[in-house]
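Margin note: ligand = oxa(dethia)-CoA.
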Amino acid sequence: MEQVRAAITAVGHFLPEDRLTNADLEKLVDTTDEWIQSRTGIKERRILKDPAKATSYMATKAANEVLRKRGISAEEIDLVIIATVTPDMFFPATACLVTANIGATNAWGYDVSAACSGFLFALSTGAQFIASGKHKKVMVIGADKMSSIVDYTDRTTCILFGDGAGAVLLEPDTTGAGIIDSIEHTDGSQWASLCMLGGGSLNPPSAATLEQNLHRLHQEGAPVFKAAVKGMADVSAQIMEDNNLTGEDVRYLVPHQANLRIIDATARRMGISMDKVMLNIERYGNTTAATIPLCLADWENDLKKGDNLILAAFGGGFTWGAAYVKWAYDSKS
Ligand code: UT7
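Resulting structure:
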């Protein structure tokens, strides 16, 4: 029997217009453009300034771009999975809002919470519905309005994050393309080094949680950095080894964009040069669940059917993983 795999058949994205540059941040906190660029690789990020617009707005824009580019109607979508740590609200899921916004009246949907690995985890989950034959069209979206949870008085985190959304469509493929393999990990033993403590059932919102600033992202940069360098490099090397791939075989590494130094270490471990690494951290910063699909959107025109991509991420939880994707189409432009 021929093997059915989930292939990415279209990519969409959305980035807000407003830019927060390193020069802007120099006015907010005690930092410098030189420090930010040399320690992270970031020059600017996009910010969704309109307080009436949230993650579902960006996810809807990205989803509509996918529909337009693939030339299908929203009614054809079976399932929408949204990776985010900044849902519009605790419930309903942002996926419910987005299916309604795009008119996906035949779809069901849910959110995945896996921080910076969210898109990878959602992709791997969505792929199972295609490979099993249950569904024919699954939309996987990574979207985060990080500016809604970033503390703009904390110089160690506010320089890192930005807002954005990216989406892909998964469809069955029997030509050998698609998501060939994936590896996923979670380890909650160091959860406290990257978290948002307030607002959940442990610390429900109160005057005290506001006073203690618990409704903002908290990160201890150094331990996360250390774990990220090892986690992302190990899992990328592992997926290459499992699939008998060398650096030569890989067209692009598509890494989560948290820090240029983490990406550099991963590429070195994989034996690939930086010209084969998708990098847009300079322009968008860390958009959490959106980084990987935003890279795919930026590089889509450069990709050819049969190209081997390694997607890799590490993030809060800790969560980390990698996917081996054989690209399924030539760009139309
Ligand atoms: O995407 C989810 C996963 N997240 C990540 O992967 C992020 C991982 N962590 C990192 O990328 C890095 O740890 C940071 C970029 C957050 C920090 O870089 P670092 O090289 O690890 O710096 P550090 O935390 O060791 O701090 C070095 C110094 C400290 O000063 P002292 O104690 O040596 O006097 C910091 O206070 O740099 C200081 N510092 C800053 N200085 C200027 C921290 N942030 C800033 C800043 N501007 N924005």
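Residues 120 and 321 are 7 Å apart (CA to CA).
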